[in-house]
Design a protein that fits this description.
Length: 355
């Protein structure tokens, strides 16, 4: 699942390099001795704007589709088909049938996919076979461009409701917003989901304008390099926040609610040192350096990381055994603790998150 985020960030980095090159290219064109080349400056501006918007939207759509599919594959690998959420099973059934009706299998985006593949996968699902395979194009299908509500619908069909509202409360989004607005991050939490709505809808509007009517010769609606960077910064933060919401849902379902995660209670003291250190009661299980730790706030998984350091009576130790005589311990982790949160630890690292 992490590979979907890494691939999106690679696309964003390419676009950042493209944006940084624009000013230098324009200066060279403006100073060129050939009048015909100088006259191409506005053409270049219009085409650069077109290329930027199309590439940015394409990267976002691919990321949303890939992230939704990665989470679905994870769910299907851990559950019988009949145990998947009702919305996912209904969408899979309806859109698998739609794939067959459209008669476009083997073409375009469906290259390599045959009607036989779709039918066999659907039959395995409905007949209770295990293992089974879902039809990807049925799962990630959306009829419209990725406006805010469409993104919500894609993940809502997987059982994750109001994902943009949840993403708006992720620290990455809050930090991005506060940096872009020049305000203290502690003053807003979470940001309004309308911030996400407006930015996603603006990108779709621009993409549709270009696709259906062209960029036009009037450059007043195009973006300068600063405005392009603003959109790159937003989508970089938005993608990370969506990813964190998905991981939060995964940890909550398969570790917190299942009982595989072991509660070590609420902090006795702290947080200290910028939020990275707390004091906890003697845990009911073995605690060790490098151990996965999960923070739950307000009934949902808030963040996760690893224990970096353990101290008992101001002395660093590698671990604490459940039969030791310590009464409390100091923990330093690579996450930010907050007051009132409940802490959980895992006995082993999950490769989905920690590799």
């Amino acid at each position: 699942m992490r590979s979907t985020l890494d691939a999106f960030w690679a696309d964003i980095k390419e676009l950042q390099l493209f944006v940084r090159s624009i000013s230098g290219v324009y200066r060279t064109l403006a100073q060129h001795e050939d009048a015909m080349i100088r006259a191409c400056l506005n053409i270049r501006r219009r085409l650069d704007y077109t290329a930027f918007i199309i590439a940015l939207y394409t990267a976002l759509e691919k990321f949303v589709d890939d992230l939704a599919w990665s989470y679905t594959e994870l769910e299907s690998s851990r559950n019988q088909y009949s145990d998947l959420c009702d919305k996912l099973r209904l969408k899979h059934l309806q859109q698998s049938a739609a794939l067959l009706r459209r008669r476009r299998l083997g073409e375009g985006r469906y290259t390599g996919l045959s009607a036989t593949d779709v039918v066999e996968n659907l039959h395995a699902c409905l007949s209770g076979k295990n293992p089974y395979k879902l039809n990807r194009h049925a799962v990630v299908h959306h009829d419209y461009n990725l406006r805010s509500q469409v993104v919500q619908d894609v993940f809502g069909s997987l059982g994750i409701e109001n994902i943009n509202k949840l993403a708006s409360g992720v620290k990455t989004m809050i930090d991005w917003f506060c940096t872009s607005e020049g305000i203290e991050s502690s003053s807003i939490q979470p940001i309004s989901p309308k911030v996400v709505d407006l930015r996603l809808n603006d990108l779709v509007d621009r993409r549709n304008q270009i696709a259906h009517a062209g960029a036009g010769r009037d450059l007043s609606e195009s973006l300068d390099t600063n405005e392009m960077q603003v959109r790159l910064d937003f989508l970089e933060a938005y993608a990370r926040s969506l990813f964190d919401v998905i991981i939060s849902a995964y940890l909550d379902r398969y570790y917190i609610r299942s009982g595989l995660a072991i509660s070590i209670g609420h902090p006795l003291e702290g947080p200290f040192k910028g939020g990275s250190v707390v004091v906890v009661r003697k845990p009911p299980c073995r605690i060790f350096r490098g151990q996965p730790i999960i923070k739950v706030s307000g009934g949902r998984v808030d963040s996760w990381g690893q224990i970096l350091e353990i101290q008992v009576s101001d002395v660093g130790v590698d671990s604490i055994e459940p039969d030791s005589d310590v009464t409390d311990a100091g923990l330093r982790a690579d996450l930010k603790f907050t007051k009132g949160n409940e802490l959980f630890v895992l006995e082993n690292k999950d490769v989905i998150i920690w590799g």
